[in-house]
Amino acid sequence: MYGLRTVSNQYKHLTVNYSEVMSTTFCITLFSSWLLLASIVGAQSRPLDVRSFGAKGDGVSDISQALLSAWKAACNSPKPSTIVIPRGTFGLLQASLEGPCKAPIELQVQGTLKAPQNPNLIKDGEWVTIQYLDHFTLSGSGTFDGQGARAWAQNDCAKASDCSKLPNNFSFNFLNNSIISGITSLNSKLFHMNVLGCNNVTLSRLTITAPGTSLNTDGIHVGRSSGVNITDSTIGTGDDCVSLGDGSKQVSITNVVCGPGHGISIGSLGRYKNEEPVVGVFVRNCTLINTLTGVRVKSWPSATTGAATDVHFDDITMRNVTSPIVIDQEYCPNNQCTLGAPSRVKISKVSFNHIRGTSASALAVKLVCSKTFPCEGVEIGDIDLAYHGSLGNITTNCANVQPTFMGRQNPPICAKNNAAQSS
Known about the structure:
This protein is mostly beta strands. The chain has helices at 4-10, 24-42, 64-75, 149-154; strands at residues 48-49, 58-62, 81-85, 89-91, 95-98, 105-109, 112-114, 128-134, 136-139, 143-145, 170-181, 184-186, 193-196, 199-204, 207-209, 220-223, 226-236, 242-244, 249-258, 264-269, 278-289, 293-299, 305-321, 323-328, 344-359, 363-368, 376-387, 395-399, 404-410.
């Protein structure tokens, strides 16, 4: 924010007792500081309310053109600008907000935006696309409602590898030094947020919600981006709460509550040609509740090469998670691949530490690595998982991996397999 209040707070320490002013230098410094304050305040543009551009918060009228007009005004301004979508319910057919722009822009959303229920009305892209910007902020307590129920019924991805493309709620493409904070993404038709080609982007205090039965509604998907921070958010969807695709580098995921969904996943990797390595992922202090998997790294059995390295899961709580800890290099959903071809994705320097809670299945830990490229540098420490079901004792399954153990492991991990034997 570039508001007056922020600037005023910054300079509130400049209270002067004039009886103590003994130095001409001090007076000049004080005067210069107030000149700087005045110049900063003067540099602010007045907020651009979309209603001034024709938007109506009647729950029906489409504000696409009004939002685009406000965006063009802000983007062409040499001063930092704020666009405001106030409280109320607004229809939004589609929006593409693009840069580069002349100065930083904040889009502040307090109301509810509703997508068309019919996915066919959203043409050639996503519902909301924001791209090619530096120092962009999306903030507020507003809601982006993708109204995805009709689209979920059309989703055939569980049966066909070339399934139809449904629109995401958001595509954040090629953003630098930007912040996405406070908003709610509801019932997206496909992914809620797709982050592509971004650098130094923070996503914080988000609420992302869709039913557990909604197919492919990943909460946040990151690909070919670096310096992405996901923090202090609640995500419950029908797929991964957070998924990291190829080219994800230096990603931090902290204080995320996930569930329902498929957990926090690296991959899947190795499905497409020319994939870039995943390097530097740090998942800390997260809680997973009633999810299909907890924390996992997954790759397809195929001839495509790739890599995932320097990946760390630490201080994770599992509550009734079906598969709490997973490395799966035989990932092949709906028989869309050939299991006879081992994965050529190299997984190394992966650690699981301080992970506790309950498993919803007897198989609590699965570390199944590639025969061609066995996992290297896997570290396991302080695991405490319990299973209270009727399917026998809690177990683990390991193949093509020799972990290093530290601290306490409950259950004993890889003991039956002796950490090296293929199951």
